[in-house]
Amino acid sequence: MAARRGSAPKLGDVLLVTGTESFLADRAVRSAIAAVSKDASEVEATDVDAATLDVGVFAELTGPSLFASERVLVLRSLENLPSEMVPHLIEYAGSPSDDVLAVLVHSGGQKGKGVLDKLRKASVNEVVATAPKAWELPQFVAGEIRLHGGTVDEGAASALVDAVGHDLRALAGACSQLVSDSGGQAVTAELIGQYFGGRAEVTSFAVADAAIAGRTEPALEQLRWALDCGVAPVLVTSAMAGGLRGLAKYSSAPSGMREADLAREVGVPPWKLKQLKQQSRGWTPGGLATAIKAVAQADADVKGASGDAGYALERMVLTITRAHGRR
Asked: What is the per-residue DSSP string for 206-218?
């Protein structure tokens, strides 16, 4: 799970977020921004891909601003930082701006390890986003439910893991939904059964797998059955996002990597590489981009932007299956 070294982030800090568990990494970024925003009237947050960074842009992002006196710079995919930018970043880490919080996100793996070592020598704070072991997932569920103000016993937490699976985003979404609908009562195995019972073979992941394979009718059938069985719409978009994210990382990974290195690069267990290899057939970068945009839109829709979550999910599935094989 996410482990922090050092104190809570504040303006003038450089925070390093490392690890393959994207859900925990994203949460660490949001928490850092929230910690700074809590004590400031106006904070400007800028999200940048490290691959696009140059000296001029970096100076602009870390120098004085005309629009906000206090800012957060989130630099993602640190492993793709251009080599000529490394000295500038290390120099900045040694003497950061007092009115900027710099959050540097590294996705894990060996790529870019040199810059990580140098940043650690500069004594920056670090959050390590490590996926919990399978046996730790009930503890994760219990923590999520407490975070939302609910309670759950060990048996019910294990039942939720069995029903939803091991994807942290899906588990977190389920916890939020269950606490919201529990009416202040403890989250019980009975409540979990109402949401997820009778669907052992129909999970949000089954919908995602069918859609990513380009199988329109099975994906729609799985979706309708899942929704009829009480699967929360947010779990479907979460599973779809996780599946496409893994596929995109697999497709863009350098060729010729050893299996263990490739698994670390993609952020999945080695056994899942075979599935990703099969899923990658028929997908192009353009098709993946279309599919990822469709998931982002559906996620916004099911969280309130649309009044019909079922329609939003069906539209997402159709867009994804049509994007499969598109040139």
From this structure: HHHHHHHTT-HHH
Determine the Cα–Cα distance for residues 160 and 192; give it in Å rounded to an integer. 6
Q: Within 10 Å of residue 41's Cβ, how many Cβ atoms?
A: 8
Alpha-carbon distance 302 to 327, whole Å? 29
Return the C-alpha torsion angle 159, 160, 166, 168, nearest 10: -150
70's enclosing H/E stretch is strand 70-76
Of 148, 78, 66, nearest in space to 113 by CA: 78
The pLDDT of residue 201 is 44
* 82: pLDDT strictly greater than 90: yes
Query: Tokens representing 292?
Result: 């990822």
Q: Beta strands of 77-172 (E only): which ranges?
A: 100-106, 125-128
Whole-prediction pTM value? 0.61
DSSP state of 229: T
Q: Using alpha carbons, list the distances in angstroms from residue 55 to 59, 87, 97, 103, 125.
A: 6, 10, 16, 17, 23
d(CA 156, CA 293): 35
Contact indicator for 153, 212 with CB cutoff of 8 Å: no
Q: Which helix (H) or strand (E) holds 74?
A: strand 70-76
Q: What is the mean pLDDT of the chain?
A: 86
Q: Which two tokens stand for residue 229?
A: 């069985």
Q: Please state at what angle helix 216-228 crosses helix 233-252, rounded to 10 degrees.
A: 140
Two tokens at 60? Answer: 């602009």
Burial 293-324 (b: 16+ CB within 10 A, else e): ebbebbbebbeeebeebeebbbbbbebbbebb
254 token code pair? 């350098």
Neighbours of 68 (CB within 10 A): 15
- Of 55, 62, 59, which Cα lies nearest the Cα of 103? 62
Dmax over CA atoms of the chain, in Å, equals: 58
